[in-house]
Amino acid sequence: MQLKALVGSCAVTVLLTGPAHAQLALTAQGVADGFTLTTFISGYGPAAYGPLAQGILPDGNVLTGSAFVGTPGQGTIYIFNDTDNQTLSSALSATPYAFTTGNPQYAMATAGGQVYGAQAFGGIYEHFDNSGARTPIAGLPGNLRSDLGMWGDVANGHIVSSSNEGLVDINPLTGTVRVIVAAPNCCDGVTVSPDGKTVYAESGGNILAFDYTTGALLHTYSGGGHGPDGTGVISGGKLSGDVVVNNNDGTVGLLDIKGGTGTETIIATGGTRGDFVSPDTSNGTLFLSQTERIDRLSCGTGCSIGGNGVPEPATLALFGLGLAALGLRRRRQRPGGRAPCAGVTSAITPKAG
């Protein structure tokens, strides 16, 4: 059975076929590399959009959102404890929000200990408080709108985001904006290296590396046909500098950046559709979104994914034994194609799905 709903200017078909039951599992290589994988939240769906991005609130709880879990045309901002193996009924709070863009899912980032977000495909940038209430970030240019992907704590408390102005650097405390790469709506899956020097973003099925200061394209890494999306850089341990990639084909890859080969090794398979990722800044794990769940990926003691530092071993111990896996998933249905990105190398192409 199909149900059609209007999202912004787009008709989205919701397949009422029951939730998917595929689940990510580590490959032999993923286990050998020291990764662990657990479920953070399950039970999303049936829906055209499952979970998207996460942020760590000042009180330590996890904020996330989902569209089409409940009333079509209305999404929900959820707050959960930072523990694994929960369902939607475990939420501490659930606050409805109205769709305002062609993709109502929230991209989110944790920066300077605060959570910020924006609805994809044209949303304004907002700050979330511990209750889940949101207010616009003061001082931003009135025409600035989000596209796909945000990343926070660029070693300076800033946000790097894909926007209608290109890849931009936002100071959420002052509202000042600097354009890093002038390629409007070009990119997805934004992340920043722990030292704040390199911005990684997906475009045209590849992962591009840019200089954070100058915007220069440093390297293009092949996505290998897996549909790369959300990314997170590892710091600490033997894999420090390598990039975790959440793929649309239900796999998770590891890009060999440190070794210089740029090859992708698949470290997990069997998922539904990978999308955004978000770092858990309290313990060094990475949330991975899938269609019907959020997983958590850990790279072990003395290692962090997506943050700008390695958490203390005591912090990891307090988080608990099964800490592992990732879980941010942002389902998106892009209405039509984008015009080619301007002002940047042709290696960047608009995100199509």
Chart the SSEs and their pairings:
Layout: E1 2-7, E2 10-15, E3 25-26, H1 28-32, E4 36-42, E5 51-56, E6 62-67, E7 74-80, E8 86-87, E9 93-98, E10 106-111, E11 114-119, E12 126-128, E13 134-136, E14 146-152, E15 159-163, E16 166-171, E17 176-181, E18 188-192, E19 198-203, E20 206-211, E21 217-222, E22 228-235, E23 243-247, E24 252-255, E25 264-269, E26 277-280, E27 285-289, E28 293-298, E29 304-305, H2 313-319
Parallel strand pairs: 4-8
Antiparallel strand pairs: 1-2, 3-25, 4-28, 5-6, 6-7, 7-9, 10-11, 11-12, 12-13, 14-15, 15-16, 16-17, 18-19, 19-20, 20-21, 22-23, 22-29, 23-24, 24-25, 26-27, 27-28
Give a short overview.
By secondary structure, the protein is mainly beta. Helices cover 3% and strands 43% of the residues. The protein has helices spanning 28-32, 313-319; strands at 2-7, 10-15, 25-26, 36-42, 51-56, 62-67, 74-80, 86-87, 93-98, 106-111, 114-119, 126-128, 134-136, 146-152, 159-163, 166-171, 176-181, 188-192, 198-203, 206-211, 217-222, 228-235, 243-247, 252-255, 264-269, 277-280, 285-289, 293-298, 304-305.
Summarize the structure in words:
- The chain has 353 residues and is mainly beta.
- It has a single domain (19-319), classed as Neuraminidase (6 Propeller), CATH 2.120.10.30.
- Helices cover 3% and strands 43% of the residues.
- It has helices at 28-32, 313-319; strands spanning 2-7, 10-15, 25-26, 36-42, 51-56, 62-67, 74-80, 86-87, 93-98, 106-111, 114-119, 126-128, 134-136, 146-152, 159-163, 166-171, 176-181, 188-192, 198-203, 206-211, 217-222, 228-235, 243-247, 252-255, 264-269, 277-280, 285-289, 293-298, 304-305.
- A six-stranded antiparallel sheet has the order 3-25-24-23-22-29.
- The radius of gyration is 18 Å and the shape is globular.
- It starts with a strand and ends in a 34-residue tail after the last helix.
